[in-house]
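Practice problem: predict the structure.
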Amino acid sequence: MMDKDMIFNKFGQYYFADDITFLMGIDIRFADHLAIRMKDRVVLETCTGGGFSTIAMAKYANHVYTVEIDGLRIKDAKRNAEIAGVEKKITFINNDILSKQVDKAIPVFFASLKSPLLQNKFPRHRVGNFIPQFS
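Answer:
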């Protein structure tokens, strides 16, 4: 386990983190700045990791669906969400984001993709429950 004070200073709470989730996790100041944009929305997140961004979004969003392929990461993210008191606003899905099971587990949602680089990566039609919109 990491030094608890380092975890607190980066994520704002004494969460569970290892070297990898600490390194990959987004600093609470930045995560919170991004998360406020999710206010009152239903959010789909991939690559949950330790759940630090998930927790930040859950503070503002109506609900967060988060998908992580690594079972150990999901376990830590769930414990961290409980510490933060937002576990009821998060659906954790331990699977590959491209699997049919994930498609069945999430509601239909819309996403606005602002990056011109991403426009070429997604088709202009419905892909499972994901309906891309470009602007």
